[in-house]
Design goal:
It is a multi-pass membrane protein. The protein is α/β, with parallel strands linked by helices. The protein is built from 11 helices and 6 strands.
């Protein structure tokens, strides 16, 4: 799966595309809403007036999108360390609630008209031509906005595009209702208004609920999570992946994961594995940030080992028992594994004789010195066959 960056889409591109498509939508909705409301009033068409106010709601939605698009691309700050991407999600929820309110209002108004059918007037034919013109304009606007939204992979712009498609569908219903009214079935005009209200309300509920789920930290789809898991598991040095969690952050995601590695590698190697795994997820998936936790062993089901001694406690016990000079003659590697503490003692060739018997004596003294630390499971003495050092010189 490619990220927007991989597809050649930068935040600046997304911002420019959102601004351009939204301004086009604003211009279209200003013209259509004015035309529908004014001519709908003179043509006695409730459905055309309702569709005009629907276009006005689109206009308000466009301004919400413009404002959210500007805020969502602001850099992270002290109050928003993960950035402002969720402002897009909040805007999508606001759009959904707006559609829901408009839909309920249109249903109510149409219902009141249909309870008094004798008061429903005959619509002027000009209303039908306005409805058909609106249908063509809204369908063209939808196709344009959806193409832009998909090119920059913005869920907010996709939502706004489908908002325009709902307008096109409602205009079709309005045209049918007006046509039926002109044929003598006067109740079809308010009925069309009611159907438009239902369609708008249903669309608004879907958008609002989806956005609310994202704001409540909804995770990515199972398919996307499996792809991220495969990317992490394919990183050299990673033995297993568990506790993988995701949550939406606007059009991106935040990812947390635990990676199992060899428990006896160095800290720097473990960090390199974690950094590599993180970089791969950022490169190949729509992740805004990735938090990687390195596990030296499978900690699922393992007993907690929070009472084990720290390095300073071990070294103090050795200094008290062996003296500062001898205790400083070797390096100690601590391994907290399986709920126990294992020690690897790496001797310094310059300070310690290579005699195996001397190593045995030292091991006995170490065990005696650390004997009271019951959490220590194993002590090993490691003596390099040849202590050498090489440092690369920069040219």
């Amino acid at each position: 799966m490619s990220t927007p960056a991989q597809a050649g889409v930068s935040p600046a591109d997304r911002h420019a595309a959102a601004k351009r498509s939204t301004l086009v939508s604003v211009a279209v909705n200003v013209v259509l809403s004015t035309l529908q409301i004014v001519l709908g009033f003179f043509a006695h068409s409730q459905s055309l007036i309702a569709d005009g106010f629907h276009s006005l709601s689109d206009l308000l939605a466009d301004f919400v999108v413009l404002a959210a698009n500007r805020v969502s691309h602001e850099a992270a700050d002290a109050n928003h360390p993960y950035g402002h991407a969720r402002f897009e999600t909040a805007a999508s929820m606001l759009l959904g609630l707006l559609l829901l309110i408009v839909g309920i209002g249109m249903l109510w108004s149409a219902g009141m008209k249909m309870t008094n059918p004798e008061l429903i007037p005959t619509v002027h034919p000009v209303a039908l031509w306005v409805a058909l013109l609106t249908l063509l304009c809204k369908e063209g606007l939808f196709r344009y906005m959806l193409r832009v939204a998909e090119s920059v992979k913005s869920s907010m712009l996709v939502a706004n595009a489908w908002h325009a498609r709902s307008d096109a569908a409602s205009s079709l219903v309005v045209a049918v209702g007006i046509g039926g009214n002109l044929m003598g079935y006067r109740f079809l005009d308010p009925l069309a208004a009611a159907l438009v209200g239902f369609m708008i309300g249903r669309s608004g509920w879907k958008f609002a609920w989806s956005a609310l789920s994202d704001l409540m930290d909804r995770g990515l789809s199972d398919h996307e999570v499996d792809e991220i898991r495969q990317t992490l598991a394919a990183t050299p040095g990673v033995r297993n992946v568990h506790d993988l969690r995701t949550r939406h952050m606007g059009d991106y995601a935040l990812v947390d994961a635990h990676l199992l590695v060899d428990g006896r590698i160095s800290v720097s190697e473990g960090h390199y594995i974690a950094a590599t795994a993180r970089r791969r997820v950022l490169q190949h998936h729509r992740a805004l940030d990735v938090l990687v936790h390195i596990d030296p062993e499978d900690d699922e089901g393992e007993r907690n080992a929070y009472d084990l001694p720290f390095r300073e406690a071990v070294m103090q016990r050795l200094r008290d028992s062996l003296g500062d000079s001898e205790a400083g003659g070797f390096e100690i590697q601590l391994h907290y594994l399986g709920g126990w503490l294992d020690l690897d003692i790496v001797l310094d060739d310059r300070l310690t004789a290579p005699d195996p018997a001397a190593c045995e004596q030292l091991l006995a003294r170490l065990k005696a010195a650390l004997g009271e630390l019951a959490q220590i499971r194993d002590i090993r003495i490691l003596r390099p066959a040849c202590a050498m050092h090489h440092e690369r010189a920069d040219d």
